[in-house]
Specification:
Layout: H1 2-9, E1 13-16, E2 42-47, E3 60-63, H2 66-79, H3 85-94, H4 99-122, E4 135-139, H5 148-159, E5 164-165, E6 179-183, H6 188-200
Helix pairs in contact: 4-6
């Protein structure tokens, strides 16, 4: 549908494909640029942070036609100049890792996802099962709090678990007041501690 709309309206497509290797349950990543008629009009944005766990490096890249990348490089030169050379070399080395690396990456994150979902099941909080990335949206409508921010503050202060109020992910924030977002990219022992804290002090 997106490809058809782009071609019909003669517009460019910008895609963020940072989680292309963190997928679950047989989900497959399909880059928009690979679809018929989209190679010339797609700007694919990606980076090292998620796949190689180097968030602090802030090293990313784009894939597009020479005509498009030429214009992008001119703007980029005035904004950031360049990423540190050693980090660029490390990125080149990382991209040469074998397929087994990406398979193991997805397996480890799947285990973490299943751990956080088990915790949410134990405390009877409904959620959307993620098919990719490392976040879970959970529904907190059953709790007696005015909004997600109030519930988030309660979790941090009284239980010691930090989450993100999901209202910030909605164009109309009030529609996200019944949801919070968990990030499960942390260590397994941290997830275990999260479960223990929830079970020992469940919110009302």
């Amino acid at each position: 549908m997106i490809a058809e709309l782009c071609q019909k309206s003669d517009v460019l497509a910008f895609t963020d494909e940072i989680y292309e290797h963190i997928l679950y349950d047989g989900t497959q990543h399909i880059s928009l640029a690979t679809l018929p008629g989209m190679e010339e009009r797609t700007i694919t944005i990606n980076g090292l942070s998620k796949t190689y766990s180097v968030n602090g490096w802030r090293v990313g890249y784009i894939l597009a036609t020479p005509e498009l990348t030429g214009a992008i490089r001119k703007v980029h030169d005035f904004l950031t100049v360049a990423a540190p050379a050693p980090l660029q070399r490390a990125g080149v080395a990382a991209m040469q890792l074998p397929p087994s690396y990406y398979e193991e990456l997805a397996r480890l994150y799947r285990q973490k996802r299943d751990s956080i979902l088990e915790i949410l099941d134990q405390v009877s909080i409904p959620y959307f099962v993620p098919k990719g990335a490392y976040y879970v949206f959970a529904n907190i409508a059953k709790f007696r709090y005015e909004n997600a921010l109030e519930f988030t503050n309660y979790l941090i202060k009284d239980i010691g678990v930090a989450v993100v109020p999901s209202s910030r992910f909605f164009s109309q924030p009030e529609k996200g007041n019944s949801f919070i977002r968990f990030c499960f990219s942390t260590k397994p022992e941290t997830l275990q501690s999260t479960g223990e804290r929830w079970l020992n002090s469940q919110p009302n």
